[in-house]
Design brief:
Blueprint: E1 5-11, E2 16-17, E3 22-29, E4 32-40, E5 46-50, E6 58-64, H1 66-72, E7 82-88, E8 95-96, E9 99-102, E10 105-108
Parallel strand pairs: 1-8, 1-9
Antiparallel strand pairs: 1-2, 1-5, 3-4, 3-6, 6-7, 9-10
Length: 112
């Protein structure tokens, strides 16, 4: 199964996929945030099974546990987590949210 939201994390400094990065997917609602799913990136830095195969329209949050990833490698890092809020629209299909990561910077975009 491929979930509605997938991700890919690349370690830009080492030039390798970032395996073992913890992830949480939550939905913004009237009570704040409701966690939908949690997981980790695989050996290729990907997670294709983060949550259901369909999501309702709304605003979601994807949190990457980047501090834990760098701590496990005994590398100092500035960001303990990378938090990305994004909108899911009806009829828009799959959402791929990758990040390019280093200890002191990151970039993201809506992938395909």
């Amino acid at each position: 199964m491929t979930s509605h939201v997938t991700t890919h994390v690349l370690d830009a400094v080492r030039g390798v996929p970032a395996a073992g990065v913890g992830l949480t997917l939550s939905r913004h609602d009237e009570d704040g945030l409701t966690e939908i799913a949690a997981g980790v990136t695989d050996a290729d830095g990907r997670n294709r099974e983060l949550g259901p195969d369909a999501l309702e329209a709304g605003t979601y949050r994807l949190v990457f546990a980047t501090g834990e990833y760098f701590d496990a490698q005994d590398r100092p890092a500035f960001y303990p987590a990378v938090t990305i809020d994004f909108r899911v629209e009806d009829g828009q299909g799959h959402y791929h949210v990758p990040i390019l990561l280093s200890p002191y910077a990151y970039s993201t975009y809506r992938g395909s």
